[in-house]
Design a protein that fits this description.
Number of helices: 6
Low-confidence stretches: 198-202
Radius of gyration: 19 Å
């Protein structure tokens, strides 16, 4: 079966590096919040800040890359075939003879459900985490920049809530990775960059 490279080297690098950093942030962040002891508070806090800054700069570069290459268009939401994709994931995928209603291509990497999920990730979860996290990080400077009226408790609570939203997104994302046919097809695609000519798509 003919194959087309869907995900470029940078997209794969960005995806896996971002995933690694997010997992690091979760592990260290939940430790800082007292969920368990792994590195110790100070070490966990230092690692959390380091991973946060690396991820911020990765995001800045990725945003620039998406704007320059035009790949930002891959995330524009659409309702075209949305109902069919939802039906596939709620019932049809349990039919061994059913095929995914969305065809992946170089110019259409994400199905309508993915686009909505990534939209919520990019414009809701991530900005809340970054803003609350940076406010949390620079708490000692609030008075100097006129933010002394803010509540640290509220900022910390919002940051933690957004972290749980990120965790939920990650769990669903990992679950959907294994919903392809064959079961490791999507995982291999994100490693090699290649998809079959008529693949399933998570």
């Amino acid at each position: 079966m003919a194959r087309e490279m869907i995900f470029t080297r940078f997209e794969r690098f960005w995806h896996w590096t971002q995933a690694f950093l997010i997992i690091c942030l979760m592990i260290t962040g939940f430790e800082v919040n007292g969920a368990y002891v792994l590195y110790g508070y100070e070490r966990a806090a230092d690692l959390h800040r380091l991973a946060a800054w690396v991820l911020i700069w990765l995001w800045v570069f990725a945003i620039f890359w998406h704007l320059i290459t035009g790949e930002w268009r891959q995330y524009i939401p659409t309702t075209d075939k949305l109902a069919a994709v939802v039906r596939y994931y709620t019932s049809d995928m349990f039919d061994p003879n059913a095929s995914h209603p969305f065809k992946v291509g170089r110019l259409s990497k994400h199905n309508p459900l993915q686009r909505l999920a990534y939209l919520s990730f990019n414009v809701a979860i991530t900005p809340v985490i970054w803003v609350s996290g940076l406010l949390y990080m620079y708490y000692n400077d609030w008075d100097a920049i006129g933010l002394g009226w803010m509540s640290l408790l509220w900022v910390a609570g919002i940051h933690t809530a957004a972290s749980f939203a990120m965790l939920a997104f990650l769990i669903v994302h990992i679950y959907m990775v294994f919903m392809g046919k064959p079961i490791l097809g999507h995982l291999k695609a994100m490693i090699t960059g290649y998809e079959p000519e008529t693949p399933d798509q998570t």
